[in-house]
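Lab meeting notes turned into a lecture example. A postdoc, R.K., suggested we walk through two folding results consecutively so the class can see how the record format repeats. The first protein's sequence and C-alpha cells come next.
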Amino acid sequence: MGGMGRTGGTARSGDAAPLVLVGGAVAQRPGRGGHAGVFLQWLLGLQQLGCRVAFVDRLLPGDEAAQRAWLRTVFAPYDVPVLLAGVDRLPRADLLLDVMGYTGVDADVRAFVDVDPGFGQLWAELGLHDPYGAYDAFVTVGTAVGSPTSLVPTRGLDWLPVPPPVHLPSWPVGRGGPTFTTVASWRGPFGPVEHAGRSYGLRVHSFRPLLGLRTAAGVEIELALAIDPADEADRVALLAAGFRLADPARVAGTPQDYRRYVSASAGELCVAKDLYVATRGGWFSDRSACYLAAGRPVVAQDTGWTAALPSGEGLLAFSDTASAAAALAEVVAAPYRHARAARELAEAHLSAPVVIGPLLDRLLGTGAVRAAA
C-alpha cells in the first residue's frame, strides 16, 4: 500500500492511457463487502477500458492498523494500487472520481460522484454541508436528477446522471438458488432529512409498509440486514412476518463473500430508502446492478429509475405490496427467462464500457476511451 506499482505517477501525454483516481471511504467500514464492491466496480471497469487507476482513501484517527488491514483484504486480490491522502505522495492524475467528495484530492479534472442522490443536495439546501464547490463536474446514480419529475435539488449544477457501472467479468452467471435476498442497512449512517415541511426517511420507513409481502408473495425472502439493537421491535416484526434475517458481516463480509451470496440467490428484492422514493431522483442500486450481472433477476422499488432502465423482464419495478408480490410471482413463474434477461440488461445498460466509456469521453474529451484502449 502506498506505491503506484505499474500504474505510474504521471498524467498522460499524447495518446497515453489516462490516469484515473477513484476516491472514497473503504478503510473505515470493515466487514462490508458490498460497500467495498462499489469502488471495485468503478476501478475494474476503468481498467477494462484501458485506464491506469488507483484508489485513494484517508485514514480516520483511531485504529489505523485495522483500517490498513481492511484495505489490504479488499484490494490484495486485484492489481489496484491504494494510496492514502495525507500519507502518500499522490500523482497528478487526469481525472479524480471522488465518491461523495470524500477525499478532495487534486487532479486535472475533479468529478464529484454522488451515490446517495438527495441526501447531499438536501443537506446543502439546509445549510448543513455543501461539498460541491471544488469540483469541475458532477456525476450521480440518480438517473432522473435534473429531470422535471425529480424533487432532488440540483443546486444549479449540471448533473450527469449515470446508472451504477458493473464489471461483468467479475460476475459470471451461475445457477442461483431458491431464495430471494438482499444486502442492506435498516437505517444506514444518515438520519431522516426534514425539508420544506416534509420528512424524507430511510429504508426502515419504506419497508414497514411492506411487512405483508412475504405472505402475499409466498416465496422465501432472506434479508442480510444490518439492523441496530435499538430497532429490535422491527427485527421481531420482520421475523414474525416470515422474512429470514442474516448477518451481512457473515454472508457478505468481503467482496468475495458478497459475490457468492448474490450469485447463490434466486434474485433480489430491493427496497429503497424512503428519501429515494419520495424525491423521484431515479436512484438505482449498485447492488442491484451486481445481481443483474450475475444473471439474478431484480424486483426493485421504483424511485424514478424506470425512465432510464427497462422494466419488465429481468428487472421489475414495484410501488407497493401488491405490485411487489406480482413481480416476484412473475420471476418464479419463468426463472430462466428472467435470469437470461437480467444478464442481458446488465450487458446492454450497466457494463463498464456502456456506462464509463461515454462518461470518460464527456469528462476528458472525445477519444479518451480510444486513448485508454
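The second example is placed directly after the first for contrast:
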Amino acid sequence: MNILILNWRDIKNPKKGGAEILTHEMAKRWVEQNHHVILFTSYFKNAKKTEIIDGVKIIRKGTWWTVHIYAFFYYIVYLKKDIDIIIDEVHFFPFFSALYARKKTIILVCEVASKLFFTLFPYPIALLGRAAEKIYLWMYRNIPAMVISRSTEKDLIKEGYRKENIHVLSLGISSPKGLRIRNKENKPTIIYLGRINKQKGALDAIEAFYSIKKEIVNCQLWVIGSGVSDYITMLKKKIRDYKITDSVTFFGFVSEERKFGLLSKAHILIVPSVHEGWGLAVIEAASQATPSVVYNVSGLRDSVKNGETGVILRENIPQALAKEALLLLIDKKRYIQFQKNCLEWARSLKWANATRDSLKLIESFIEIKR
C-alpha cells in the first residue's frame, strides 16, 4: 500500500510530542512490512525539505499553521493517483482531507480539545475554536478513527461519533538502546517533564513542590522541557518569591538519553496537565521505576493504573498533588510496590501492537472500498 500521513510535526521537529513518536513508530513498522509511507509535515529551522528516516519519506513545507494548505495542493498535484490511504492527524484540527479524498481518509485523533480551548485562548477565540471543532467532528463522524486511549474514544462518542467507527490503538514506548535503570537520588526528587506552559500545568507543579518543600526540606525539583520565555520567566520569579531557587533546576530541552537518565534517578513524576491524549511521559517514567502523581484528566486516566503505578487525584489542585506525592515518598513499602508495578506495566506496552491494530484497520478499510 501507498500510505500518506498528514501531521503538523515530524520526529525531528524540536517541538515534537508523543503524537509524533507514535506516528513514526507505526510508520517505520509499516515500511518494514513492505508498505510505502510518505509523511507530509511542516518545515522547521535548519530542517531538510525532503528526508528519509527509517524508510519513511518526509516532505516538509509551510509552518504549523499553513502546512494544511500546502498538503492539499501537494496531494492534488503530485500524489492523488498513487496514494491508497491518507492518515489525517488531528492537533486541534485535522487536515480536512475528507473534503478532497474522503474515500481514502482515516483520521488519527490523539485528543479532543473541547474545554482546552478555553484554557489556552481568550473567550471569543476559544468559542470560535470550539465551534470549528464541533463542525469538523460532525464532518468526520462517519470516517474511521484511530485513537490513542479510551478517554479519547469516550470524548469522541460524546461529540456524536459512532462507537463502531472508533478503533483504540495499543501504544508502546520508545527508549534509547542500552538503557539501564539508575539508582535514585539521595535527595527526594520530584520531576516535571513536558512543555513549560499553562496547558501542561507548570505553575501548579511549582506550587505543589513549594508545599512538598515545607515538609521535606532537602527535596528538589527537576523541570525538563522547553517553553515560551515569558512564561518561564514568570515561573522563575515565583520560585524566587518562594525562596526555593536553590532547590529547582531547569534542564530545558534534553536528549532522549538524558531524559531517561533523569527520569530514572527521580523519585516521583508529577503531571498537573489540564488535558492529555495519552500521557507518554507517565509511561516513560514508569519504564524507569518512577511512579507518577497526576491530575484526573483525559489521557492520564489511561496511562496511570491508580493505586498501582501511581496516583490519580480526586481534586485537581496543587495541594492535592503535593499531599499524594508526600504520602508516596513517606510510605517506603508502598513506593517499592509501585516501582515493581511500573516496570511490569511499561514492559507490557509494545509498538508492535499499535502497528498490528493500525494495519488491521487500514487493510479492512481498503477491502471495504474495493
